[in-house]
Amino acid sequence: MNDTLWALSYFAGNFGCSPLDIIKRYIEGQDRDH
């Protein structure tokens, strides 16, 4: 969970997107990596 929270805060700081967009992009990134 800590890694997820860090990633969300990281994306939020760099892109300034809404939480939902951040989560969607994070999930999509994980799916692409795996």
From TrEMBL:
This is Uncharacterized protein. It comes from Salmonella enterica. One of its GO terms (molecular function) is transposase activity. GO terms for biological process: DNA transposition.
